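During data preparation, a discrete fold description was generated, and the record follows.
___
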Amino acid sequence: MTELDVRIAQAVRDSAVVTDALTSTDPAAVFAAMDKWSQPVLQQALCTVNRFDSVNMAVVRLYSSDPVSYPPGGSKQKRGMPWGEHVLLQRRIYVGEGPDAIRASFDDHSAILGLGLQSVINVPVVVGDVCLGTVNFLMREARVQDAHVSFARLAAYLTVSGFPR
């Protein structure tokens, strides 16, 4: 069993931490519980949750584990950007590994790299035929494993109750 396997097994045993929060009517509590629960597995240094504004093709930040660098309420335009097409419109997970991938995908790459972040997993949260937004995990390690991506998908979908509809 790898170290990652052990961390995933422990997260499953500790799942009450996040499942208890899912009953909350406070979206920030839902997002924070998911962030805390997923941290031992993904080891993200930054977690953000964004609502998708499909009319304006923009994302609006609902949660950030680093509210100084990435405050809730901040927004980013995604119209005409490959990332927006991939994640928001095609509703596919985006995995960016290494500084070149960060630079190629994000306008704020200087801020991301300045925080020492070198990889990202962006998970679109889709209910029915509607993309509610994204959950974004940014790590200091340049590479992620398939198990990280699968776990990130699970963690992201635990946040559905926190998204406005």
